[in-house]
Every structure is written in C-alpha cells, then in structure tokens.
Design a protein that fits this description.
Spore Coat Polysaccharide Biosynthesis Protein SpsA, Chain A, two-stranded antiparallel ribbon
Length: 202
C-alpha cells in the first residue's frame, strides 16, 4: 500500500514560547529530524501547516511539499483530514513535528496493520497515541470534520497496536516524547546528551 507521511507542523507553540519545529537537537531542527523519519517510511512526504507564514518557514528549511490546513486552528485532526485530500497514498501516516525521536520502524509496523482496517494507532505509556497513526485515505474522505485525534480514531474504528508490540519497534518509547514546554525540551536534550546553550534556536 502506498504511504503518504504527513508531518503535522501547524501548532501555535504557545506553551513552548517559540516555534517548536525550529527547536534544535544535535545540530538539526525538530522538523528535519521528523522529516528524515518521514522520508524513510513515506512514498510521499508533506508538511501540514496552518498559515502561509508557517509555510514560508518550512520552505526555507527544506524542499518538501507544504499543504495549508483548510480549517486553521481547528487542531491536528482537521489538519490531517485536510492534508489527506492532497495525498496520493492510501495509507496516511501522522507524524507530529514536536516528537523529534520518532522511529521509522514504528510507522512501518502501523502501515502493515492498516491492511486489516481503516486505521491503526499505537498504545504507549498505557495510553492511546492517535497522533502517531496510520489512517486509510479513502475512509477519511468520507468524514467532514473531527474535533480531536481521538474522535478521528474512534470514527474510523481504529485498531490498537498494543504497547508490547510497539516496544518491538521502539523499546524505550522515544517516538512519543513530545515537546510542549521548555521543561520538555530540556528533557529531550538531556536524553540525547545535548546542551541547551548549543542546541536551542539562536
């Protein structure tokens, strides 16, 4: 099944205080880290953003297709629905830009599970993680809106990839370490042995 990897990068980064996709980790931006994983799993890659200003930032960083949300500010579920309308792959892989340690192996596993339904989402830390999921484009085309990723997964009757299986692809569950605040950012830097002074945006 052909896959389109969609990097969700349209958030306002209010809690972080600066654009999360531009945060640096070991000499590269979060966006570049996630795009590297996306390019490994996707036959097609696109970055979903909310505004033209965000689109310009992405275009300056990389030569990747950028799509604008049809409902800016409505959240990642609507962003993913919007991006899926521009995708050529039947398998839509959702990849949040604020999770710079995402593992391609996780998405290969999710994409394989999509053969059996309209969506597959992983479980990690005892919780469902719909931001990291595989979704069938043809099924999403029938939906007009979704208030949250959880609702999107529910409407598509998503299969759940249990944590025990997820850990075979990502033993430390690093794919799910997201950065919403400066404290989260420091945690990622410490985990990777990076220094905030040397790796934060100048």
């Amino acid at each position: 099944m052909r896959c389109t990897a969609v990097v969700l990068a349209g958030g306002a980064s209010r809690r972080m205080g600066s654009d999360k996709k531009l945060l640096m980790l070991n000499g590269r931006s979060f966006l570049e880290h996630v795009l590297e994983a996306a390019c490994r799993v996707g036959d097609e890659v696109m970055v979903a953003v909310a505004t033209e200003a965000q689109a310009e930032v992405v275009r300056r960083l990389c030569d990747t297709r950028v799509v604008l949300d049809s409902a800016p500010g409505a959240g990642p579920a609507m962003a993913l629905l919007s991006a899926s309308a521009h995708a050529s792959g039947e398998c839509i892989l959702s990849m949040p830009v604020d999770c710079p340690l995402v593992k391609p192996e996780l998405y290969f596993m999710l994409a394989g599970e999509l053969e059996h339904g309209n969506a597959c989402i992983p479980e990690a830390y005892g919780r469902l993680q719909p931001l990291h999921g595989a979704y069938r484009r043809s099924a999403m085309a029938e939906l007009k809106e979704a208030r949250s990723m959880y609702q999107l997964a529910e409407m598509l009757e998503a299969r759940v990839l249990p944590e025990s299986a997820v850990r075979r692809a990502d033993p430390q569950l690093e794919s799910f370490l997201n950065v919403n605040t400066p404290r989260d950012y420091r945690r990622i830097l410490e985990l990777c042995g990076a220094s905030e002074a040397g790796d934060s945006e100048s």
